[in-house]
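User: Hey, quick favor. My workstation is busy. Could you predict this chain's structure for me?
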Amino acid sequence: MEELIQTILIVITIFLAIFTVEVKDLLHAVICLCGMCISIGILFGILSATYVMVFQLLIYAGAAVVLFISVVMLTRRKEE
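Assistant: No problem, here it is.
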């Protein structure tokens, strides 16, 4: 059962990584990046690496994504 959950999370992580690169809207790309970071953190939790999981969720899914979202929201975008 644990291997099935790991496989599903790996597939989700790969799809979110592809969507992060391929999406045209920057805000959607940052949201996909956040989802990817969260799924990687959950994978670390399943592998019993709680210390790495906590830092993955706090630093990458928390601080870095908030920084990216604030930069995207504060810059002017061209309306096409």
